[in-house]
Structures are given as structure tokens and as C-alpha cells.
Amino acid sequence: MNTTLVTGGTGTLGRHVTELLRAAGHEVRVLSRSTQPYAVDLREGGAGLDRALAGVGTVVHCASSPRGGDEQAAHNLIGAARRAGAGHLVYISIVGVDRVPLGYYRTKLAVERLIEDSGLGWTVLRTTQFHDLLLRLFQGVGKLPVMPLPAGVSDQPVEVTEVAARLAALAAGAPSGRVTDMGGPEVRTLPDLARAYLRAAGLRRPVVGVPLAGAAYRGFRAGGHLTPGRAVGRGTFEDFLARRFTA
């Protein structure tokens, strides 16, 4: 088996991908900004990135930041992968990056296009939002006396370990291009999901829908970030909350 490099290999998704690949017998290198021996800031690139890619056949690109720099990071990673002779670049993206005009989504779409034009063998998987993202959202707004949420928006959260299993399987296979999207098992309104969080956390808060402005909000209201026809996930938000709050 060839060596696989997982960028963002200590993050929410990357650590599960790393564990699964290693359990399957793959040699895996973890690249992040602070994890030795491959501590590299992808936005800067340089000799450290070339050293991390030396002898690597497959790259699973999980590193991402809504604070910016993803396009430069992808440019540097693609260049290093070419120089190393890597044969397969796997990228995790988001359902709706081509339908919801949110800045972060536009960046993810731009990275997809860089990868498609890279000359490398590539695979791109788009998924809906992880349960963890909704939890962080609800924990944040749950500190207020009233929980304000975007009015008229639904979500389709998916279990991160299920996404990791799909991504690890894709990484172990041949380049597949854009594969079918992966969504969570249920499309539910944000208030419904918020009330599930409140029950699990033992909190009482009124949940209030707040109308917002802008094209991105209209895209979310229209369900551009959902894929009900690909509701292949199995773990529900309540399953996730039960594990989290029991822990």
C-alpha cells in the first residue's frame, strides 16, 4: 500500500479518516500546522510541504478554514503533490457550494476547480454539515435568553464518522472524479433541531426565527445546501447528542 497524507489530520474529520486508514493497514502521515514531524502551514508551503509529500501516493485534503487562505493552500498542496508524483488527491467539499453564494462556499468551489484542473487524479466528495457544526451554533446562541435562528431554514446534518468512512474508502480506491453527494438521514427545520439540543442539554429557551437579508440567506431558505435524494447517513442528531451529553 502506498503512503497517504491527510491534511488537517487532527481536525474534526481528519482524525477519523486517519484512524480508519491506519486500522486498514495504510501508512498515514498527518499534516497540520502544529503536529510534528509534518507541521506545515499550507498557506505558506515551502520545503516542509515538499518533505511531507515525499513518497506519498494519495493525499486526502481535509484542512480548511472559514477565515480564508484555502485557495492558496490548495495551490501549494497541488504543486507539492505534482512534484512528489502523487497519483490521487481526495477533497472534502460541501453540498451546495455551487448554489449558495456564501463566501466560504465560493472558496470551496474554487478549490474544487483547482483540483479538477490540477492534472492529478482526483476525487471530490460533497457532504452536508456535520452534527458538530450545529452543536457549536446552538451552544453559542443558547447562551442568550432567547435562541435566534435564521427563519425558514432547514438542515440535513450528517455524522462525521460516516463521512470519514466514505472518505477513507474513496482514498483507498482509484480516482473517481466528482462522486455522489452524501447527506444526513433527515431534513429538519433549525428550530426542530435546536429544540432537540435544548432537551439534551437540559435547557429551556424560546426559539425565535429571525428573517435575514442577502443572496446567501435566500439560497439557504431555498434548500441549496440540502440533498434529500442522497439521505444516506444513518446517525441522527439525537444519536449524536446522546453520545455527546452522556460523555
Automatic annotation (TrEMBL):
Q: What InterPro entries would the database entry show?
A: ComplexI_NDUFA9_subunit (IPR051207), NAD(P)-bd_dom (IPR016040), NAD(P)-bd_dom_sf (IPR036291)
Q: Indicate the segments forming the NAD(P)-binding domain, all copies.
A: 8-132
Q: Which Pfam families match?
A: NAD_binding_10
What molecular function does GO assign, one term? protein-containing complex binding
Q: Which domain of life is it from?
A: Bacteria
PANTHER family from the entry?
NADH DEHYDROGENASE [UBIQUINONE] 1 ALPHA SUBCOMPLEX SUBUNIT 9, MITOCHONDRIAL, NADH-UBIQUINONE OXIDOREDUCTASE 39 KDA SUBUNIT-RELATED
Q: What is this protein called?
A: NAD-dependent epimerase/dehydratase family protein
